[in-house]
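We were asked to recover a plausible sequence for a given structure. The inputs and outputs are reproduced exactly as logged, with field labels preserved.

PROBLEM: sequence recovery
POSITIONS: 316
GIVEN STRUCTURE:
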């Protein structure tokens, strides 16, 4: 393959799904994905060795989340994403809006807190450092809606519509840093909304839905802006290699359509997860109230009945 100065492959054949899914690993993401699966598996195995349960569904969610990152970063989708705006947009949408949701549903922080050993008295271990980080001002800031929503929006408009995108696409470290940024922005945006792992911000379920819908429309607007443009808006994709046989403006329109359509997918997934969590939260609350009533002989109900009786007596 012939590479240009900033790593673009300039003689790729026309894109097909089969070619895009061929294995072509990026070492950084391949090592990262394998390490994430290995550490998660170690945590689950450690819990089971001591007789503790860990939901299979969480393991499945986390595994699929890691594989979704590998799908767009360790195949030729990553190669085509360097020269095709539409393929890059698939990468962006998956790694920033689908992968974070799946990873968070796997509750990796909860698993780490349960699996990591407690350090001896007077010493600090990985578990203590993690707890300190969770309670730090830094985490409080980056998981606050006043930060997550603007950052989620800025990752689109301030990146693609300024020279910053072209600068990052000009080097391998820049491209890797950009994709890591997409992933982390998605994680901190959905973390307070999903509410599986512990965190400093835990709004009610209605507020979580409002936070979700505060960010999603901007993805649709971004997609529409790309679709309506009459000329290429991103310099990196303005002159695609002739071997691809594509038109830059048509490819940009396709990228806009992908951004617009993909904004609906995470909304549906998160809403399903939130309704499920809300239902089970109500069920657990009802069980706790029943147990409390059994312990105190339902004194709360008796007091309420006495109050009703007193009102009736006054009305006579």
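RECOVERED SEQUENCE:
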């Amino acid at each position: 393959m012939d590479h240009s100065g900033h790593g673009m492959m300039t003689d790729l054949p026309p894109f097909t799904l089969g070619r895009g899914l061929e294995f072509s690993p990026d070492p950084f993401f391949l090592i990262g994905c394998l390490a994430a699966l290995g550490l998660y598996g170690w945590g689950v195995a450690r819990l089971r060795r001591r007789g503790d349960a860990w939901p299979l569904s969480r393991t499945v969610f986390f595994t699929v989340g890691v594989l979704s990152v590998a799908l767009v970063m360790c195949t030729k989708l990553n190669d085509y994403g360097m020269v095709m705006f539409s393929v890059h947009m698939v990468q962006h949408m998956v790694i920033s809006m689908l992968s974070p949701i799946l990873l968070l549903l796997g509750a990796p922080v909860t698993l780490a807190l349960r699996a990591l050993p407690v350090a001896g008295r007077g010493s600090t271990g990985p578990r203590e450092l993690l707890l300190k980080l969770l309670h730090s001002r830094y985490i409080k800031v980056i998981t606050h809606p006043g930060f997550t929503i603007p950052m989620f929006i800025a990752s689109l408009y301030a990146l693609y519509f300024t020279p910053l995108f072209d600068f990052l696409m000009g080097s391998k470290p820049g491209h890797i840093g950009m994709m890591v940024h997409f992933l982390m922005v998605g994680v901190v945006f959905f973390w307070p909304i999903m509410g599986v792992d512990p965190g400093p911000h835990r709004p009610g379920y209605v507020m979580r839905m409002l936070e979700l819908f505060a960010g999603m429309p901007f993805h649709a607007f971004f997609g529409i802006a790309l679709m309506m443009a009459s000329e290429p808006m991103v310099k990196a994709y303005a002159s695609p290699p002739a071997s691809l046989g594509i038109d830059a403006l048509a490819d940009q329109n396709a990228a806009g359509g992908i951004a617009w359509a993909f904004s609906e997918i995470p909304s549906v997934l998160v809403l399903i997860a939130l309704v499920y969590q809300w239902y089970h939260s109500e069920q657990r609350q009802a069980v706790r109230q029943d147990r409390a009533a059994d312990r105190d002989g339902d004194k709360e109900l008796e007091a309420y009945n006495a109050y009703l009786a007193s009102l009736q007596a006054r009305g006579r």
